[in-house]
């Protein structure tokens, strides 16, 4: 079972968004189960659960883990193909975000568009690497920092921009024969607290910094 996989097909995305099928995926992420075993957990007849399982199986979201004999019946044990799923913007290709339409480094919506492109591109790279049976070389940096003031945050962003720009200038070789282009994403945004810990309004005052570079070997 994969830790996470990206759904690119619109039909598969629609199947996964059904609340009942989402519940079944969550149950099967914990281990193989039959339709009869799942029926009691989700409060549906076995035949109805089996119908939903077949829909999930057609789109590669669950797979056969084995079979077992129970009385005169052979039960199919199904398992989720991943512990979690992410829907790629390719599932809504006609209206997917395009960060190149505008560039505003201080816009949260532009950050969202950049993040959506990251999901799309990494998902496509994973799919291609899996088919080619090649290793996908990636890197990500994730952390948190609490700023004492808005001025400190502005100073941090200024230094971060200068530092990353200097590294890009140092290592960028656009004319290198056989070189491979990489995309770099650096983001700073307020940390989202769990629902129970959120204040009535306003950000939490901390920020996450993330950077990712992707290539395919």
- End-to-end distance: 23 Å
Work out the strand percent: 15-25%
- The total strand number stands at 7
Average per-residue pLDDT, rounded, comes to: 89
Estimate the global geometry from the Cα principal axes: elongated
Radius of gyration: 22 Å
Count of helix runs: 6
- Listing every helix as H and every strand as E from the N terminus to the C terminus, the arrangement reads EHHHHEEEHEHEE
As a percent range, the share of helical residues equals: 25-40%
Low-confidence stretches: none
Largest sheet: number of strands, sense, barrel closure:
3 strands, antiparallel
Spatial order of the strands forming the largest sheet: 5-7-6
Protein structure class: alpha+beta
What descriptors fit this protein?
alpha+beta, three-stranded antiparallel beta sheet, two-stranded parallel sheet, 217 residues, 6 helices, 24% strand, 7 strands
Describe this structure in words.
The strands form three sheets. The protein has a three-stranded antiparallel β-sheet, covered by helices on one side. Strands 1-4 form a two-stranded parallel sheet. A two-stranded antiparallel ribbon has the order 2-3. Strand 2 (62-70) and strand 3 (73-80) form a beta hairpin. The model has no long low-confidence stretch (mean pLDDT 89). It has helices at 10-16, 19-29, 35-42, 46-58, 108-132, 150-171; strands at 5-7, 62-70, 73-80, 85-87, 136-146, 185-190, 206-216. The protein contains six helices and seven strands. The protein is elongated, with a radius of gyration of 22 Å. It is α+β, with helices and mostly antiparallel strands.
């Amino acid at each position: 079972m994969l830790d996470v996989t990206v759904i690119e097909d619109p039909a598969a995305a629609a199947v996964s968004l059904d609340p009942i099928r989402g519940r079944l995926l969550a149950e099967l992420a914990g281990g193989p189960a039959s339709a009869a075993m799942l029926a009691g957990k989700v409060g549906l007849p076995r035949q109805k659960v089996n119908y939903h399982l077949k829909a999930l199986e057609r789109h590669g979201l669950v797979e056969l883990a084995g079979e077992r004999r129970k009385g005169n019946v052979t039960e199919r044990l199904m398992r989720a193909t991943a512990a979690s799923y992410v829907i790629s913007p390719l599932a809504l290709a006609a209206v997917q975000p395009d960060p190149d339409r505008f560039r505003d480094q201080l816009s949260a919506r532009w950050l969202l568009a950049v993040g959506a492109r990251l999901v799309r591109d990494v998902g496509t790279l994973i799919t291609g690497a899996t088919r080619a049976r090649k290793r996908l070389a990636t890197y990500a940096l994730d952390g948190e920092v609490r700023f004492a003031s808005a001025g400190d945050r502005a100073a941090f962003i200024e230094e971060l921009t200068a530092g990353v720009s200097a590294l890009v200038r140092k290592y960028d070789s656009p004319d290198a024969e056989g070189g491979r282009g990489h995309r770099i994403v650096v983001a700073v945004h307020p940390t989202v607290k769990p629902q129970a810990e959120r204040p009535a309004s306003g950000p939490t005052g901390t920020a996450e910094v993330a950077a990712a570079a992707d290539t395919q070997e």
